[in-house]
Amino acid sequence: MARGPSLRILLNLALDSLLALAALPAAIWAAAPGAWPPAGWWGWALPGAALTLAAAGAPLRLAQQYWRFAGPRDLMAVAGAALGAALIFSVALRLAGAWSPPNEAFPLIHAAALGLLLSGARVASLLQASRRSGESSPDAQNVMLVGSPEGTDLFLRALSRDRHAHYRVTGILSLRARQAGRRVQGHPILGTVEEIEGVLDTLRAEGRLPGAIVLASGLPGPALEALLDAADRQGVPVRRAPAPTTLAPAGDAVGRRMELRPVSIEDLLDRPQVPLDREGMARLVQGRRVLVTGAGGTIGGELARQVAALGPATLTLLDHGEYVLYEIDLELREKHPEVSRRAVLADVRDEPRIRRLFEEIRPELVFHAAALKHVPMVENDPLEGLLTNALGTRIVADAARAVGTTAMVFISTDKAVNPTSVMGASKRLAEMYCQAFDREARVAHAGMRCITVRFGNVLGSTGSVVPLFRRQLERGGPLTVTHPDMRRYFMTVREAVGLVLQASVVGTTDPENMPPELADGGIFVLDMGEPVKIVDLARRMIRLAGLRPDEDVEIRFTGLRPGEKLFEELFHGKEAPRPTEYPGLLVATPRTADAALVGRAIDEIAGAARGGNPRAALAQLGRLVPEFEHAPDGTVATR
Q1: In this protein, which residues make up the domain named Polysaccharide biosynthesis protein CapD-like (predicted)?
Q2: How far apart are the first and last CA of the chain?
């Protein structure tokens, strides 16, 4: 043991012994004021009181307590040690036949006196440390907390450990009305989150408007949006408290300066988490051989993370990009070293390579996320998009079925609905092939299930608008938006992948328990909420950066890009959406085709693509996907 801690423990032991010496005469006086023991009795009784406390406190590690951070468990240990020491001391008095107070309640009185002194010293030390470390610096900023009592309490405790706190809490907004009017660590609860407009108006009228609002716990996206709007009207910035793990009480946190962070755009889309069948996910993945294509991408990478946490027998990561594959493999090696893992550098369009790989690994569960998804890029090179998105999906599906894979999960996109881009049409063609495969398996009650999951944009994904806006903000703008009316569906990657796994569980259940639409190759569609106007997203990101749209940072409209639509859709007109019993999951009524027919058409398209004949490839694509209205210059058509 290090010298410093040893000295501290000895000091604690000495202080507790002194308190034990003081507790004994106090207890005798309280038990029998007129019956004072002879002078010789004290010579051995006082050391005995200290020794009995040391003996009773040793199993409870009383001397190892950190007084400045005393908590309920520490005080419980104090009570136990005090009671044990008093009982041992009373038994020793009786066995020794020496003088003892005539009051039969003396052991309890002794325990109470000892407990009060021991706990009082610790509480006094805690209060002193709190006063000393919680002193605000002269330029401390007044802040108002928003959150649950638990979240605000944790923040206030962390703030009290900052030796020169740069924030001074002046009030709290609670999440529920019944908490209004109460106090947390002496700080008043001024109202609820819904009442923020009125609270801020009152504080401004009184000249007590806070310098910032601090989110001490999570808020659903709509509530956070309303809070940001109210704060923005008053010119008050909103910041988020550090993660709870960094606020947890710890001895080495003393003196650490608390740093607030900006509210992120992802926070605004943080909808109430839907209940997921975690046990079903574990049953689906645990102990199975799992393969993820496109594992280096945003969706594929998150799939790999969540699958690894569920304990597969083996996890194969497949990607065509060397560096992104290296990154996800390294991350999983560090976070889940117990998972047997393999990183494979391969192209899903290379049929011989994929077939050999599947025959070697024989995956039981395949998540197919590999795709070219950037609409203008695929418009520039449409043949590459067709080969990867359509042919690559057929090759992976065929190879999986050939080796007896239980289920393949295909990640699709809202751009496959009424597509105006080659990227969207190629994904719709892949959907058709997977639907046909799945229908055959369900009709025959045998074979590989092919589950298709369709959803919109994922925040922060590679090539998406949010990272673009962030880069443009770092350069001071302008933020470029293609059209004032452009709208998109957005979801966080964590939520999207959680629902993909949920859909996988539902799609592999017994036919009696699944939605009837799935029997004919129905498509799972994630409930994306309401579409977001891209220009509103840009304005919000500018405000979150503490700047003013159109004043500090310009928003510039650049026009629709090749293949883009103003509005994306989640359902085709003939795919009437139907709810499922699982929150967040919908099912699109299927539009089915023959797998062999679609497969031959994909091969013809691939032949034309490899021959460098885009006209023939796109003509065949149009025949297979009749709703495909190619708009290489972008379209402003409404729904």
Answers
A1: 290-588
A2: 72
Distant-in-sequence, close-in-space partners of 515: CB < 8 Å, separation ≥ 6: 506, 522, 578, 580, 587
Q: What are phi and psi of 94, to 5 degrees?
A: -65, -45
DSSP structure class, residue 389: I
Per-residue pLDDT, averaged over 80-84, amounts to 89
In the numeric block, the tokens 């991408």 are attached to: 297
- 295 Cα distance to chain centroid: 20
Asked if omega into 632 is within 30° of 0 (cis), the reply is: no
d(CA 159, CA 134): 7
Comparing CA positions, the residue from 594, 568, 635 lying closest to residue 418 is: 568
pLDDT tens sequence across 121-140: 888 877 776 665 445 555 67
Could you tell me whether strands 532-533 and 487-488 are parallel, antiparallel, or unpaired per DSSP bridges?
antiparallel
Separation between Cα atoms, residue 518 and residue 524, nearest integer Å: 9
3-state SS string over 493-530? HHHHHHHHHHHHHHHCCCHHHCCHHHHHCCEEEECCCC
Beta bridge mates, 442:
none
To 10 degrees, what angle do helices 221-234 and 196-205 make?
Answer: 20
pLDDT beyond 90 at 582: no
The span from the CA of 148 to the CA of 189, in Å, is 11
- The residues that bridge with 316 in the sheet, in sequence order, are 291, 342
Domains and CATH numbers, the chain: 3-130 (no CATH), 134-263 (3.40.50.720), 278-624 (3.40.50.720)
Which residues, other chains included, contact 159 with Cβ-Cβ below 8 Å and sequence gap of 6+? 134, 165, 167, 169, 258
Tell me the C-alpha distance between 78 and 82, whole Å: 6
Yes or no: say if 407 and 333 are a contact pair by the CB < 8 Å rule: no
State which amino acid sits at residue 73: R
Tell me the whole-structure pTM to 2 decimals: 0.72
Q: Which residues contact 633 (CB under 8 A, 6 or more apart)?
A: 560, 562
Residue 100 near residue 94 (C-beta atoms within 8 A): yes
Q: Active-site residue 427, yes or no?
A: no
Strands (E) in 346-401, as ranges, are 365-368
Rounded CA-CA distance 158/60 in Å is 27
CA angle 218, 219, 220 (to 5 degrees): 125
What b/e string do you get for 128-157 counting C-beta neighbours within 10 Å, with b at 16 or more?
Answer: ebbeebbebeeebebbbbbbbbebbbbbbb
Contact 367, 307 (CB under 8 A): yes
Helix or strand or coil: residue 477? coil
Residue with tokens 């699982």: 582
C-alpha 55/C-alpha 67 separation (Å) is: 20
The runs of H, that is alpha helices, within 172-293 are 196-205, 221-234, 244-247, 265-268, 278-285
Express each pLDDT in 594-639 by its tens digit: 888 889 999 999 999 999 999 999 999 999 998 888 887 766 544 4
Residues 6 or more apart whose CB falls under 8 angstroms from that of 338 comprise: none
Residue identified by tokens 């998105």 is 389
Q: What is the DSSP letter of 633?
A: T
Tell me the C-alpha distance between 575 and 592, whole Å. 11
Q: Who's near 33: CB < 8 A, 6+ residues apart?
A: none
CA separation for the pair 628, 422 (Å, rounded): 9
- Out of 335, 373, 415, 427, the active site residue is 415
Task: Report in angstroms the alpha-carbon separations of 585 from 306, 359, 521.
Answer: 18, 33, 15
Give me the phi and psi of 272, to 5 degrees please.
Answer: -55, 130
Contacts of 119 (CB under 8 A, 6+ apart): 75, 78, 79
Tokens 């003081």, residue located: 22
